[in-house]
Structures are given as structure tokens and as C-alpha cells.
């Protein structure tokens, strides 16, 4: 049965499409060819939006941040979920992370954590990251040559890194992992706390309750960790309000590890599926920096962000009206045939690699450098010790329209 462009557009509003790579990329390729700026009307469940699928166009909108704002609809949600968020925003109890903000708030709030992710800070953190990478490759050895890599290894390594940077006790790591999976897996039958929007929003309130206690503790007894820097930050001489403070913690504690764990699991899967590239990388370890970016492009853990037009804007001959919502499709931009040679080929030596997995411009991912360090450290530890590896069962991806990757990667291996 031939796929129509309207059916292809609807895939972008279907969490299950992101768990089916063949369906997703078939849909995105069709949109790039025939309707790169496409009106998606998935009513009544979703408020309609424009889907932008070409790399050049995603980049244009990212650059033009005064016209295309993150608020009030920064990510794709159902119409009901959007309405609940608006209601909670009016009550002052809505999530308000860097993802939700525009300038001037975005610039000022982003600066609070910026120094913690600059190159100098990353160089200081790198020995600890490498130590943890060894710990989790050793864990693969302890698991006896077979494991679910996604659940038993890759989710824990970056989680440990980012929560240690925040200064959270290790006894709380499992709780943070569960809340993160419930937050990003709200559309996944396995990870969701419940199907109702009220249950999904309750996950945020649980995050807020946890981080409100953390804020009070760090303000009473400041420490030298990132949590203390956030809790004691001042804007125009005043501390952040409780919800902005908690929101800052949430974006660091969740996106700071879930996207990286998805890249590590997806990167290993790609190497297993492309044994020639695995051998090429093992024989040429100097290619690892290129391989890391190829893994990030291949997986693209962040599937979309939304923007709202503040004025009429013409893109590829299509007029986006003031107030219209626009979905930026990063998996599509990162497989754009006009930008990447053989975009559906996994190439550990790809150079240049102009992927947009970290976004672009003022909203470029704050933790991009840390993510690259973590992925590189893990594979620098794993590859010299790896004798063999193969799938031990079918991989499974999370159902989502926002952030995700593999939730199951059964592997069988031999590690020295």
C-alpha cells in the first residue's frame, strides 16, 4: 500500500511511529521529497502544526529565534495536555525549563549553569567520567557475557555522571531514573505511570517535590556542586522562584542522561549491525571522535522541538501564519539527502557531519560537550576489551514523540 503525504505527516504525531524506524524514516523521506513544509492536522487529539523536515529549513528557523519562539508550545503534546499546561502556567506551577524559555529569560537563566559545562569544567570532569566508563564496562563482565545493554548498562553510566555533578546521593539515583523514564516515556505502555494527562503531570509534581527539598537543603547549607549553584543563583538580586529552580534541576537531571544513554545504546546497536564499521573503528581508534558524532546523528535522541511564529513567515513558498506552531523534525534533518552523503549509511569516519541533534544557535544543547565526552569515554574503554558481540534478541525502542531511543538491547558478548 502506497503511503500518502498526509499519512506520513500523521506519523510525526504518533508515538508508536518513533518505535518503528522503518515506518518513521519512510514517512520522513516522503515528506522531504514531496512536502517539506507540511501541515499536519491530527485533530481532535493534537492541535494542528507545520512539520519542517529539511535540514536547511530547520536550521533557518533555529537561527531566526526572535520570530520563532519556544513558548507557549515548546514540545508536541496533545491538545488536552497543552490546555492543562496552560492552566498550570497560569497557576504558576508549570514546568519552565530552558526548553520552555525565550530571551531575555532564556539567556539569563541559561547562564546559571553555563560555567559547569564549559570546556575547562569538562576537562576537569573527564577523569571521573573515564573512571565511571571503566566501572560500567566491568559491569558487563560481571553480568557474565549476556545482558540487556540498554537497561543494565547504558542507562546507568550517564545517569551516574550527571547526578554526581548535581550532587545527588547515589541512593536516589534509581528514583531519578524511574521518574525520567515516566516523564519521557509517558506515551510508552511499559514506562508510563498512567495513560491520563493528570497522571503524566503528577510525574512533574513528584520531581518538583523532590527538588524543592533539595533546594531548601542547599540554601541552608551550600556545597560545591551544581545543585547548590542552581539553588543559590540570583537574578537581579533575587533567588529563582521554587518552580523555576525545580525546573532547572529537572532538565539537567533528565535530559542530562537520557539522551546520552540512548546514544550509547543506539551506537552499540549500530556497530553490531555494521560489523565492518566496528572493525574499522577498532583498527583506527583515532576515528572515535567522528564515530561519536555519527552515533549521535544516527540515533538523534531528541525527536522534535516546537516553535511558534510571532509573525507571518514564508518558507519554501509556504506562508506560516502568525501564531502557527512549527515542529522541527531532527531525525529527518539528520537524514537529509541534500546535506549528508549516503545518509542511511552508518559511517564511523563521516566528515563533515553537520547533524542538528544538539539543535543550533541560542538553544544549542548546554550539555553537548559532556555528552560527547561520555560517549567517547565509554567506547574508548569498551572497544579494546571487546572480543565479540552480537544481538541476543530483538531490540525495542520507546514509544515517544519527544526524547527516546532503545529501551531493550539484548546482547551476547565476550569482553576481556
TrEMBL record:
Signal sequence annotation: none
Top-rank lineage group of the source organism: Bacteria
PROSITE patterns recorded: CYTOCHROME_P450
Keyword Transit peptide: no
Coiled-coil intervals, chain numbering: none
One Pfam family of this chain: p450
Biological-process GO terms, alphabetical: cholesterol catabolic process
GO molecular function: cholest-4-en-3-one 26-monooxygenase activity; heme binding; iron ion binding; steroid hydroxylase activity
Keywords, alphabetical: Heme, Iron, Metal-binding, Monooxygenase, Oxidoreductase
Protein family membership: Belongs to the cytochrome P450 family.
Protein name stated in the entry: Cytochrome P450
Biological source species: Actinomadura darangshiensis
